[in-house]
């Protein structure tokens, strides 16, 4: 029986491998009349996705679409592969990626009235494109916002003196309401009368005076070029005077997804496909594991580019969303939510924004546990760039570049976090041009933030990031137990660090070490702190930071709500609070201070910067470029790598292991042998110097203290200290501090 069972297993494995198939599909060359056997030859491919769906697929199978071809269909995946042999959906041939298009070409137009044309369509149209460009759904006003003129506590009505249309004119249309600095909410109107319209379910936020709204979805509002409306199987389009529909390719979205992976499927690879114009998401993943979405392009989604959701949270895992290009989505670029052991890497996401008819939209949303988000490029979003949801565990967000977020909103961030994290790392990212926009609100000043720890965020580590051109550089709102270290914040219009609590002692146990805050004028604060009147718990610990402002006036502002406002210089702040010990009010001397200061490497500091060897160890392994700290850490996002910085005199021509340093022409420091082959090193100091006790210390490359001793210094004598043999192979930093501790010498020691 054992032999029979073994042969059965072998035969099953052999048959699975041998029976795996590759199906070829070409809309231009194929025919659905071919058999499934013929379709396994690229010379006789099938034609349609509908035909592909008639066959069952197993582990090891592939479905390949011909490059350069277009399918106006939806691919629904109902099959699973195996860990060793996933099912692959990809491409073959040469040319442009094969395109799955969610829109159909609309023809048969006739003149409806004036400049409005009408065409019959077989399916509901959710987007309209003219020559590939998305058009505006009928709206009022044609651009911008109308203004709310009365508060509504019940969240079920809106009043505006601009609403003068007849009773129930707006019934069935949608009000898009800018209900808060951080919120845009659509509501379908049930009725309107006088200056008021109502809807059936409450908004999230209260309806408040001087916030904005616009209306969409009314045929009578099709009154400017490109505006359109769908109802009852007909599409209406306003064409510019002197133009005609026959001059253009007009497409209407009729399908929800480009690719829809059905519930529970796993072991799938989606790669090298182009998806355009879907009504919801380009690629939809719901409760799936072991799915790879790689090297695809997705454009013009009405909602999300790539959408992966899991319920219950963290019940699915191993989702890989890598090297995709997502552009021109109305809602989120990429959403990967409540997953376990997944990665989102090296994607390029851009234009997550509808500038004419804005909706609430994030560049990327992710939360879960054991997730890496790295190497992504994000440019231009309505709202926050990266949204990190609550309860993230062991998540790393690193080496991403995030630009031009908050284009149409006023309270969010380039990187934004929820609360209650465990081992969340936000490190070595570049966040730039997060300026904010308060149109549609009563605001007069931006509240946008580069990196925003909001709503009681805790357990976040913000390290080695570069934030440039934000209203607020880094903000903590009701946040506690977070680490903010080795960041560079430059050119903020309001402040480098914003701290805000809403109730007693909400902000506490936060650590601010080794950061550079660099601004240019008197209106740009370093810290702007708002506390409740009775708060007494320290905000955290501030140490070894550089504060630089071209104006030397007071740049730290602390406000107690209902109480006093204090404005300090760094020295006054230190005296009043005991904070920012060992911090420096000085120019960090960025290497490209005369340039645009927009490229990360511009924010390196040179050997003569006050930030060199002026930091405090926080246990990091690498800096922004992956370099290890050498001895005492530098302040900022970069560790200086030129060996000249490791000599006490910092003179030209001194190498990393220079055995002798002539400090000032009178004093001489000898370290020998260096390199050391046996671990013993002798230090000799001779010359004309002040007698007394000097301090000798030796740190490993990662900043650990390995040896410390006193050296009795006598003027004119040879003074010796011998480091014992316990040194292991590596590079060490020797520091000798003179008796008055005002002068130091440093040299690198190599143990071979």
TrEMBL record:
Residue intervals of the Periplasmic copper-binding protein NosD beta helix domain: 322-518
Pfam families xref list: NosD (PF05048)
InterPro entries (alphabetical): NosD_dom, Para_beta_helix_rpt-2, PbH1, Pectin_lyas_fold, Pectin_lyase_fold/virulence, Secre_tail
SUPFAM superfamilies listed in its UniProt record: Pectin lyase-like
Name of the featured protein: Por secretion system C-terminal sorting domain-containing protein
């Amino acid at each position: 029986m054992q032999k029979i069972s073994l042969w059965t297993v072998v035969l099953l494995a052999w048959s699975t491998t041998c029976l795996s198939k590759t199906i070829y599909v070409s809309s231009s060359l194929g025919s659905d009349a071919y058999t499934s056997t013929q379709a396994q030859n690229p010379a006789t491919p099938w034609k349609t996705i509908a035909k592909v769906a008639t066959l069952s697929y197993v582990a090891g199978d592939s479905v390949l679409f011909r490059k350069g071809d277009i399918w106006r269909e939806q691919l629904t995946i109902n099959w699973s592969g195996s860990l060793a042999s996933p099912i692959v959906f990809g491409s073959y041939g040469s040319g442009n990626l094969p395109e799955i298009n969610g829109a159909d070409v609309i023809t048969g137009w006739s003149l409806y009235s004036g400049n409005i044309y009408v065409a019959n369509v077989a399916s509901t149209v959710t987007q309209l494109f003219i020559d590939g460009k998305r058009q505006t759904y009928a709206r009022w006003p044609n651009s911008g916002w109308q203004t709310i003129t009365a508060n509504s506590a019940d969240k079920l009505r809106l009043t505006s003196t601009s609403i003068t249309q007849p009773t129930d004119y707006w019934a069935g249309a949608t009000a898009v309401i800018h209900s808060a600095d951080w919120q845009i909410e659509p509501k379908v109107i049930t009725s309107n009368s006088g200056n008021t319209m109502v809807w059936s379910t409450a908004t999230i936020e209260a309806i408040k005076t001087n916030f904005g709204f616009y209306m969409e979805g009314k045929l009578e509002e099709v009154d400017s070029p490109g505006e359109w409306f769908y109802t009852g199987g007909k599409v209406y389009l306003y064409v510019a005077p002197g133009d005609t529909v026959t001059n253009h390719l007009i497409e209407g979205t009729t399908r929800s997804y480009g690719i829809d992976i059905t519930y529970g499927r796993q072991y799938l690879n989606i790669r090298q496909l182009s998806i355009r114009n879907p009504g919801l998401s380009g690629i939809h993943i719901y409760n799936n594991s072991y799915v790879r979405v790689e090297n695809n392009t997705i454009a013009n989604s009405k909602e999300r580019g790539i959408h992966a959701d899991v319920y219950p949270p963290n019940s699915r895992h191993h989702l890989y969303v890598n090297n995709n290009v997502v552009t021109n989505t109305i809602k989120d670029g990429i959403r990967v939510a409540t997953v376990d052991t997944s990665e989102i890497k090296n994607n390029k996401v851009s234009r997550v924004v509808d500038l004419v008819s804005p909706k609430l939209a994030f560049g990327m949303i992710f939360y879960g546990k054991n997730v890496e988000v790295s190497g992504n490029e994000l440019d231009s979003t309505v709202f926050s760039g990266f949204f990190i949801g609550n309860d993230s565990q062991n998540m790393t967000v690193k080496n991403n570049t995030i630009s031009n977020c908050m284009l149409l909103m006023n309270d969010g961030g380039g990187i934004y976090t929820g609360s209650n994290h465990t081992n969340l790392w936000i490190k070595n990212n570049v966040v730039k041009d997060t300026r904010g926009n308060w149109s549609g609100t009563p605001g007069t000043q931006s509240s946008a933030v580069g990196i925003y720890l909001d709503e009681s965020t805790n357990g976040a580590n913000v390290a080695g990031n570069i934030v440039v051109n934000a209203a607020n550089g880094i903000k903590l709102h009701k946040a506690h137990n977070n680490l903010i270290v080795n960041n560079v914040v430059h050119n903020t219009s309001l402040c480098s660090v914003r701290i805000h609590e809403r109730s007693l002692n909400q902000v506490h146990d936060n650590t601010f070490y080794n950061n550079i805050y660099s601004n240019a004028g008197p209106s740009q604060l370093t810290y702007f702190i708002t506390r409740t009147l009775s708060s007494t718990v320290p905000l955290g610990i501030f140490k070894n930071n550089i504060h630089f402002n071209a104006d030397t006036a007071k740049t730290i502002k602390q406000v107690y709500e209902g109480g006093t406002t204090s404005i300090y210089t760094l020295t006054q702040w230190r005296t009043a609070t005991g904070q920012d010990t060992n911090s420096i009010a000085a120019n960090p001397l960025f290497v490209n201070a005369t340039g645009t200061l927009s490229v990360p490497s511009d924010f390196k500091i040179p050997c003569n910067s006050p930030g060199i060897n002026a930091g405090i160890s926080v246990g990091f392994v690498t800096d922004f470029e992956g370099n290890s700290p050498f001895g005492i850490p530098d302040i900022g996002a970069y560790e200086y790598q030129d060996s000249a910085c490791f000599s006490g005199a910092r003179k030209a021509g001194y190498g990393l292991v220079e055995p002798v340093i002539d400090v000032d022409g009178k004093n001489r420091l000898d370290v020998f042998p260096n390199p050391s082959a046996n671990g013993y090193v002798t230090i000799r100091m001779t010359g004309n110097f002040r007698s007394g006790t000097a301090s000798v210390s030796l740190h490993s490359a990662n900043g650990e203290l390995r040896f410390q001793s006193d050296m009795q210094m006598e003027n004119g004598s040879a003074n010796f200290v011998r480091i014992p043999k316990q040194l292991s192979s590596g590079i060490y930093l020797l520091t000798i501090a003179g008796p008055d501790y005002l002068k130091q010498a440093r040299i690198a020691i190599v143990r071979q």
